[in-house]
């Protein structure tokens, strides 16, 4: 870390101010919209290629996540295809955009007027500058102390190991050590703060949030909605949250839906939703990251009404935390281990008859299969359905698993797997259900009753 970064860290040490009180409410609704950091006019092949590559990078990180000497958490690589929410922190409130991410458990924002971000392009359709939080403008902001239990949420739970410069175990002026969050294609680092989160109908004091002073390829903050103690739902005491993802159009349409946080959910099911139980997360030494994810019991996949033969080891987790399926709003295209993807691929190839494959587009985009439909008067594609424990079935619209590549002559399956060359990525979840497959679905995470619900509907 550079001396400039350390200087930025310690410039925040004077931010020690009191908190304000909270008020009660049962639900909070937050606008949710597509987040784009690329030029909408960019070549469509390049867009699909980029989405495929960042989905693979995300999957690679999730599947290899394990404990390390520094605090790490999966991050969503910024690009078209992400979904953002705006949250207000501080007194008076400062509104900051965040990428919504169910695959991580930490909330952080770009921070101070001296925030540094390398390789962080922002689409002209959104803004030419990155919005940052200014701690000195908030009367309720405080740097987190080393002995504060919340410091253990992002570092070691053992105060002795993280507070080595303290003169005594009860009287310590040392701040919580700086965090560095690493990702395969990005990173961020800063100091932990506590400040007031100002929701539309609820003020939440003493909220743990990261004040990032530098980032790489990370132009917006992350709002982690995972299962960890530092996540947005956990800190708010949310019993249930839900959202509906507007359709991907690879541009900035300005359309938005809502993220709904329910603080007082009953045991009743939401009308018309299909439910499947949330699985108990695997507990594996040096793989605490697995405890953050939302595991669901995907029992089988059918293509054109025919069951795809998938080895059982991919559909359930073993004692090492390998296998099983998670739902991740931070992944764009659904990832499948090669042992899952290849049978699904074969099922489509066998059932899509009379339409030639476009191997050249498959090489360019990294997606397969791709079919050239330029000479087809009508095109019929097999139905793709996910079957979950408890009988819940997710029948995906074609737009959720096939996309045009380029003009209108080639269509590609929008799911990815690791390279056919080299060993399979066998660790971690075998299936990562991405947000592209969830577009125009209302999805619900019932944390109180440990259920995942969904139904297809137009999101608006």
Structure overview:
The active site is at residues 101, 328. This protein has helices spanning 3-10, 44-64, 159-162, 232-236, 338-351, 359-365; strands at 27-35, 82-89, 94-101, 107-110, 116-118, 142-143, 179-183, 186-199, 202-216, 221-224, 240-244, 256-262, 274-277, 294-296, 298-303, 306-307, 325-327, 334-336, 370-372, 384-388, 393-396, 402-404, 410-413, 415-416, 431-433, 441-446, 451-456. It has 460 residues and is of the alpha+beta class. It folds into two domains: 27-262, Acid Proteases (Cathepsin D, subunit A, domain 1, Beta Barrel); 274-456, Cathepsin D, subunit A, domain 1 (Beta Barrel), CATH 2.40.70.10. It has a six-stranded mixed beta barrel with strand order 2-3-10-4-9-8. The chain has a five-stranded mixed β-sheet with strand order 14-17-25-18-24. Strands 16-15-20-21 form a four-stranded antiparallel β-sheet, with helices on one face.
Question: Which features characterize this protein?
Answer:
Cathepsin D, subunit A, domain 1, 2 domains, 6 helices
CATH class of the largest domain: Mainly Beta
Largest sheet: 6 strands, mixed, barrel
Name the overall outline. Answer: globular
Please report the distance between the alpha carbons of the first and last residues. 44 Å
The rounded Rg comes to: 22 Å
How helix-rich are the residues, as a percent range? 10-25%
In terms of DSSP E residues, the strand content is 25-35%
Instruction: Report strand order across the widest sheet.
Output: 2-3-10-4-9-8
Beta strand count:
27
CATH architecture of the largest domain: Beta Barrel
Task: Find the structural class using helix and strand composition.
Answer: alpha+beta
CATH topology group of the largest domain: Cathepsin D, subunit A, domain 1
* SS field, number of helical segments: 6
The whole-number mean of residue pLDDT values reads 84
Name of the CATH homologous superfamily of the largest domain: Acid Proteases
Keywords: Aspartyl protease, Glycoprotein, Hydrolase, Protease, Signal
Active site: 101, 328
Organism: Solanum tuberosum (Potato)
Signal peptide: 1-22
